[in-house]
Design a protein that fits this description.
- The structure is a single chain.
- The protein is mainly α.
- The chain has 2 domains: 65 residues, no CATH class; 216 residues, no CATH class.
- Helices cover 51% and strands 8% of the residues.
- It has a two-stranded parallel sheet with strand order 1-8.
- Helix 5 crosses helix 10.
- The protein is globular and about 70 Å long.
Length: 289
């Protein structure tokens, strides 16, 4: 669906999930790419489409199974559990953040006045546990969807802050290869993103790696991956999505003080600058590259 308000509900699909799955399973593999645009229509990408289909399947199972849906944003490092900054560094969101913080982009594709819906991994897990607890103890049982993201009004995380704080931590606190005092520009124009990164990232990078005799193929691979990941996140970084979070707030209110302390889900309690410091340090510490 186009950018706008995302309510805590399951949205209808153009085709019934079972029909879609049966059709996709029946077509030859080499047809997939040619009909993708026809199938997606206004959907962001195949990942978002598959999530939408999955939500409809879960909702339809409500008559036979006690289920809820937890809908996180971009899952990143842990805030507290199992330890601050812990993350699985091979995920697309972790790679994207690390590329930004370490200087892989001259220009970041995004809206510099926009938000970025981050979800610490332990908050996603805690919300799943709390949702299951509510479902198991409530009478009568009710189907809920939880937008597990920051409240856009009370404690949003701004994209420009994420970039600046992450770059600041990487450049000042970590002993990694970096460009001192360099912070990427931000533009939501794809052409500017492509041209700036080509002129000020790819060409100098090619020249430098050729001087190092033979390392160019690795640079080309890394550059292409950086460009692909940035465009994958375009719909998230260049548009402002208005996520409703009333079900999340209600779930948090139902928890007693001890449970809130042990299984925090209240995004209003997150110090985002501290979290981004954890994220940047965790990407460096737990990196598999």
């Amino acid at each position: 669906m186009p950018p706008g308000t995302v309510e805590e509900k399951v949205y209808p699909t153009d085709i019934e999930p079972e029909v879609a799955l049966k059709f996709l399973a029946s077509i030859p593999t080499d047809w997939s790419a040619s009909i993708t645009k026809l199938i997606l229509k206004d959907k962001i990408n195949t990942y978002a489409y598959s999530k939408h289909i999955a939500e409809r399947l879960v909702e339809r199972a409500w008559n036979n199974l006690p289920v809820s849906i937890v809908r996180p944003g971009g899952i990143t490092s842990a805030m507290t559990e199992p330890l601050p900054g812990w993350n699985e560094t091979q995920s697309s969101s972790s790679k994207w953040a690390k590329l930004i913080f370490c200087g892989a982009y001259h220009t970041v594709l995004g809206n510099k006045q926009g938000r970025f819906e981050l979800t610490p991994v332990d908050y996603a897990v805690n919300t799943c546990l709390a949702a299951a607890w509510r479902l198991g103890t409530a009478t009568p049982k009710t189907f809920h969807v939880y937008n597990c993201v920051p409240n856009r009004k009370s404690n949003p995380i701004m994209l420009r802050d994420l970039i600046n704080w992450g770059c600041e931590t990487t450049r000042e606190s970590l002993s990694v290869k970096k460009h001192e005092n360099y912070y990427p520009l931000i533009s939501n124009n794809t052409n500017i993103f492509d041209v700036n990164n080509y002129l000020f990232r790819k060409i100098p990078g090619q020249f430098w790696t050729l001087l190092k005799k033979g390392s160019y193929p690795n640079f080309q691979k890394d550059y292409n991956e950086a460009q692909l990941i940035a465009k994958t996140f375009k719909a998230v970084t260049t548009e402002n999505w208005e996520f409703e979070t009333s079900n999340m707030a209600e779930l948090n209110q139902l928890m007693d003080p001890l449970d809130k302390a042990l299984f925090p889900i209240d995004f209003d309690q997150i110090d985002w600058k501290l979290f981004i410091e954890y994220l940047a340090c965790g990407l460096h510490k737990h990196s598999q590259n």
